[in-house]
Design brief:
Radius of gyration: 23 Å
Organism: Xanthobacter aminoxidans
Shape: globular
Structural class: mainly alpha
Membrane topology: Multi-pass membrane protein
Helix content: over 70%
Family: Belongs to the binding-protein-dependent transport system permease family.
Protein name: ABC transporter permease subunit
CATH architecture: Orthogonal Bundle
CATH topology: MetI-like fold
CATH superfamily: MetI-like
Largest sheet: 2 strands, antiparallel
Keywords: Cell membrane, Membrane, Transmembrane, Transmembrane helix, Transport
Order of helices and strands: EHHHHHHHHHHHE
CATH class: Mainly Alpha
Length: 265
């Protein structure tokens, strides 16, 4: 008699495949360390020891908190500006037509250029990192929001206007559902860019945070500590994504009622 089939939820399968990807990355890292030597890539053990040292000496906590503040504050400020201008541009044609080339130009400007300008405008410190994150994130959210609003069902919008549905109801029932499929990937991209840009700006501006730790380790030619700071920054990004975006993705996926995957015992 055949054993009964077991079912794995898509969320669990995604977690397992994600863990497999990280294990593959760790294996490639260790191979690179063995092939090229510690002056090119430190081993996992050396990097792990550096991570433990940074955590136990109390250096990691304040640095991670500073980077989180720079990344999330800039992401929220730039994301909010891009979102509201994207909604306005999607609903009002002249606003969208005027704003799109401006945000396209902003999107094409290298973040390093914004870091240099921010240093001239704000001086060294956290303000430069926060500003650079905001100006980098805003175009991502603007373009996604603009496309999402423009993709709404025009017939339903005309019907709602014909029956004089309140403006707030039209926005929540017609515009927001059309935005969800565009915004969730855009916010995930913006969050990842926020951490990368914040760390880069911290390295160049001398601000506190993970970037400041990387700059110090670089000046000491301490490659394991440099890699340890990178690992800590990635861990903070994964944690932020799991806490802030994973619930939204699960809620969105739950509306589609994906079928569980069957695995024979």
């Amino acid at each position: 008699m055949a054993a009964p089939a077991r079912t794995l939820s898509p969320a669990l399968l995604a977690t397992l495949w994600g863990a497999a990807g990280l294990l593959a990355l760790a294996g490639a890292w260790q191979w690179g360390a063995a092939a090229f030597g510690p002056f090119v890539l430190p081993s996992l053990a050396e990097t792990g020891e550096a991570v433990v040292r940074l955590v136990t000496t109390g250096k990691a906590g304040p640095a991670l908190l500073a980077t989180l503040v720079h990344a999330l504050a800039g992401c929220v400020a730039g994301g909010a500006a891009g979102f509201f201008l994207g909604v306005a541009g999607g609903l009002v044609l002249p606003v969208g037509a005027m704003s799109y080339p401006v945000f396209t130009a902003l999107l094409g400007t290298p973040p390093i250029a914004w870091v240099v300008l921010a240093l001239l405008w704000f001086g060294p410190g956290g303000a430069a990192a926060t500003f650079t994150v905001a100006i980098t994130v805003a175009p991502i959210l603007f373009i996604a929001t603009l496309q999402g609003v423009r993709s709404r069902d025009r017939a339903l919008a005309e019907m709602a206007q014909l029956y004089r549905a309140p403006a707030l109801m039209r926005f929540t029932d017609l515009v927001l559902p059309a935005l969800a499929d565009f915004l969730i990937p855009a916010v995930a991209t913006a969050l990842a860019f926020s951490f990368k840009v914040a760390v880069m700006a911290e390295v160049l501006s001398g601000a506190d945070g993970v970037g400041g730790g990387i700059a110090t380790a670089r000046s000491h030619f301490d490659l394991p500590e440099t890699m340890a700071w990178i690992v800590l920054a990635i861990a903070a990004l994964i944690l932020a994504d799991a806490l802030l975006l994973a619930p939204l993705r699960r809620r969105r996926a739950g509306r589609g009622h994906p079928a569980p995957v069957s695995v024979e015992a």
